[in-house]
């Protein structure tokens, strides 16, 4: 009996080690695919507005905008009506896409270096990367969660989380005027970007 | 007789002073003392630089707990911070923890911002959506001196030769 457990222990350790290594690799390859796909589109785009349009369907495939919006709104989200939730998700996703498309200069190719991915909890992987763009280096960490496949749920740029940044803003808007105020402010930000 | 009562009074006054100093030291050393039932939750940061045990934990600027301990996770060298917070707080599982600074160069504290999930954190749970201390010095350095890669460029900037 003791001999058997003695033999089983290293086997079990090996097996669990394999299980631990897998999600990080899986998420990493998914992210590489997504980044390459987006860059492929970005190099072909002639202007910022066409980039925003052509890149949206690809981003929807890799980013969980529903999760992002829920987290960005924060505690107020549960008092949103279903149609308000849908509207907020749609506005927030176009806000994110347009904000980042505006930062992009057509024809400039960024270089992305991937570092070792870590898995801080089950179903969660952080992929730290360094982005070299127009001569500047940025540290960008992608937070990914498993929901069917691996989806991006947050982007941390130079230590500042996108979700935390929006949450602090949207939460104070919500405290002032509830769901309608959040929708109005999102609407305003989207039209300012276009 | 009168002489000794004066001495007694002075002694009493001195003892009171020492007690006051001791109380103040304890109070300041332990940070804001949290009253009532508490629980310990953990938060995982890439960098907990400047944060120390006893630091405050705030939600919307209101103290709700304090930093109990900071340790390094031997597995991936991240910083694990134990937070003692009031146990009647219903913190959603997607609560975010950020290390912030009071003023520009003041003390570091942890700001919690609750999320939207209806599953709540229990004692011993870990917050993984965190923002580490923003390294202000390195950001200023980048702004002031530019990145390393940029300094190599100016020569070729004017002709703007297309990259191969």
What features would you highlight for this structure?
heterodimer, A: 194 residues, alpha+beta, Nuclear Transport Factor 2, Chain: A, 6-stranded antiparallel beta sheet, 5 helices, 21% strand, B: 164 residues, alpha/beta, 8-stranded mixed beta sheet, disordered C terminus
Descriptive notes:
- The complex is a heterodimer of chains A (194) and B (164).
- With 194 residues, chain A is an alpha+beta fold.
- Chain A has one domain (2-193): Tgt2/MlaC (Nuclear Transport Factor 2, Chain: A), CATH 3.10.450.
- Chain A is 62% helix and 21% strand.
- Chain A contains 5 helices and 6 strands.
- Chain A has helices spanning 2-44, 48-62, 65-73, 82-102, 162-193; strands spanning 111-114, 118-121, 124-133, 136-147, 149-157, 160-161.
- In chain A, strands 1, 2, 3, 4, 5 and 6 form a 6-stranded antiparallel sheet that branches.
- In chain A, β2 (118-121) and β3 form a beta hairpin.
- In chain A, α3 (65-73) packs across α4 (82-102).
- Chain A starts with a helix and ends with a helix.
- In chain A, 27% of the residues are buried.
- Mean pLDDT of chain A is 84; it is low at 11-20.
- With 164 residues, chain B is of the alpha/beta class.
- Helix content of chain B is 28%, strand content 29%.
- In chain B, strands 7-1-4-3-2-6-5-8 form an 8-stranded mixed sheet, with no helix packed on it.
- The model of chain B is unreliable at 150-164 (pLDDT under 50).
- The A-B interface holds A 70-71, 73-78, 109, 118, 120-121, 124, 132, 135-137, 143, 154, 156, 158-161, 163-164, 167-168, 171 and B 44, 46-47, 76, 78, 92, 94, 96, 98, 113-116, 118, 126, 128-129, 131-135, 139, 142, 146-150, 153, 163.
Short structural summary:
Chain A has 194 residues and is α+β, with helices and mostly antiparallel strands. Chain A has five helices and six strands; from the N terminus they run ααααββββββα.
Task: Give me the secondary-structure topology.
The complex is a heterodimer of chains A (194) and B (164).
Chain A: H1 2-44, H2 48-62, H3 65-73, H4 82-102, E1 111-114, E2 118-121, E3 124-133, E4 136-147, E5 149-157, E6 160-161, H5 162-193
Antiparallel strand pairs in A: 1-3, 2-3, 3-4, 4-5, 5-6
Helix pairs in contact in A: 1-2, 2-4, 3-4, 3-5, 4-5
Chain B: H1 2-29, E1 38-45, E2 56-59, E3 62-72, E4 79-86, E5 96-101, E6 108-113, E7 126-127, E8 130-131, H2 136-145, H3 148-151, H4 154-157
Parallel strand pairs in B: 1-7, 2-6, 5-8
Antiparallel strand pairs in B: 1-4, 2-3, 3-4, 5-6
């Amino acid at each position: 009996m003791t001999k058997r457990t003695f033999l089983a222990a290293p086997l079990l350790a090996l097996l669990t080690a394999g299980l631990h290594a897998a999600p990080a690799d899986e998420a990493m390859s998914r992210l590489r695919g997504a980044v390459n796909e987006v860059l492929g589109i970005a190099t072909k785009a002639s202007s910022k507005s066409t980039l925003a349009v052509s890149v949206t369907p690809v981003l929807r495939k890799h980013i969980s905008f529903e999760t992002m919006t829920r987290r960005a709104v924060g505690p107020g989200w549960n008092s949103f009506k279903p149609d308000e939730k849908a509207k907020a998700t749609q506005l927030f996703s176009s806000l994110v896409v347009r904000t980042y498309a505006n930062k992009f200069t057509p024809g400039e190719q960024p270089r992305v270096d991937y570092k070792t991915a870590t898995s801080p909890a089950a179903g969660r992987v952080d992929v730290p990367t360094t982005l070299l763009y127009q001569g500047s280096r940025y540290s960008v960490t992608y937070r990914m969660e498993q929901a069917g496949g691996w989806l991006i749920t947050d982007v941390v740029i130079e230590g500042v989380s996108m979700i935390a940044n929006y949450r602090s803003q949207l939460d104070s808007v919500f405290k002032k005027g509830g769901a309608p105020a959040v929708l109005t402010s999102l609407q305003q930000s989207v039209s300012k970007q276009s | 007789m009168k002489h000794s009562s004066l001495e007694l009074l002075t002694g009493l006054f001195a003892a009171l002073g020492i007690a006051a100093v001791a109380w103040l030291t304890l109070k300041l050393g332990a940070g804001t003392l949290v009253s009532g039932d508490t629980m310990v939750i953990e938060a995982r940061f890439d960098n907990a630089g400047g944060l120390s045990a006893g630091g405050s934990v705030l939600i919307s600027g209101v103290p709700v707990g304090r930093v109990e301990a900071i340790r390094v996770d031997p597995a991936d060298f991240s910083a694990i911070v134990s937070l003692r917070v009031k146990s009647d707080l219903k913190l959603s599982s997607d609560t975010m923890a950020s290390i912030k600074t009071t003023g520009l160069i003041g003390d570091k504290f942890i700001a919690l911002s609750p999320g939207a999930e209806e599953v709540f954190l229990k004692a011993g749970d870990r917050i993984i959506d965190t923002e580490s201390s923003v390294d202000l010095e390195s950001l200023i350095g980048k702004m002031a001196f530019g990145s390393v890669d940029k300094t190599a460029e100016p020569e070729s900037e004017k002709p703007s030769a297309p990259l191969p």
